[in-house]
Amino acid sequence: MNDERFKKPAGVERENRAMKDRAVTENREISDDERVAMFRQQFFQSSLPDLPKIPGWHMCWLTTTNPRDSIQTRIRLGYEPVKPEDVPGWEYATLKTGDWQGLIGVNEMLAFKLPISLYERYMTEAHHDAPLREEEKLTDTAEFLEQQAKSSKSRLTMGDGNMEIGQYREAQFDLS
């Protein structure tokens, strides 16, 4: 079988398709200006939209898929679902089906609110009181080790950071 269609002419190299399409692939990169424009869009598809502020409330998105931090647990802690009537203009973001039908949501995320007074207490506990208790434990351990070293006529050298650990400091939060 001698078919002329399958023969290559002598000296002619086959064109590399990658080289032919190179200009197209090089032009597909997104510029920094385009990236900034996408970032500027609050409703960009890979992120959650910013919830509007409601005076007296802390607004947040909660997941429905974390078994260790469930929606039911957050409700017991005082969180309340954000309803469309709470934020006019957000009717488009209400879930149409499922357990959370009628609430504001995006995929598995639900909009919730927490009274600001309770939010401030939670943040004080999580970011001031609990770390301070941990510092006190470290101070107690360091003091125990220092006493143990003295009783065995040894010496324990404390670093600069150990001097400040365990000293009470007033909580200072800027929640604006």
Name a few traits of the molecule:
about 180 residues, four-stranded antiparallel beta sheet, alpha+beta, 6 helices, flat, 4 strands
Précis, in short:
This protein is 37% helix and 10% strand.
Question: What kind of oligomer do you see?
Answer: single chain
- Please give the radius of gyration in angstroms: 31 Å
pLDDT averaged residue by residue = 80
Percent of residues in helices comes to 25-40%
Q: Based on helices, strands and strand pairing, what is the structural class?
A: alpha+beta
| Topology order in helix (H) and strand (E) letters | HHHEHEEEHH
**Number of separate helices:** 6
Shape label: flat
Q: Which residues sit in consecutive blocks of at least 5 with pLDDT less than 50?
A: none
Strand content: 5-15%
Number of extended strands: 4
Distance between the termini: 83 Å
In this structure, how is the largest beta sheet organized?
4 strands, antiparallel
Question: Could you explain the architecture of this structure?
Answer:
The chain has 6 helices and 4 strands, in the order αααβαβββαα. The protein is of the alpha+beta class. Among the domains are: 57-117, no CATH class; 130-164. β3 and β4 form a beta hairpin. The longest helix is centred in the C-terminal third of the chain and has 36 residues, at 116-151. It starts with 16 loop residues before the first helix and ends in a 12-residue tail after the last helix.
Question: What is the fold's blueprint, element by element?
Answer:
Blueprint: H1 17-20, H2 22-26, H3 32-40, E1 57-63, H4 71-76, E2 80-81, E3 105-106, E4 109-115, H5 116-151, H6 160-164
Antiparallel strand pairs: 1-4, 2-4, 3-4
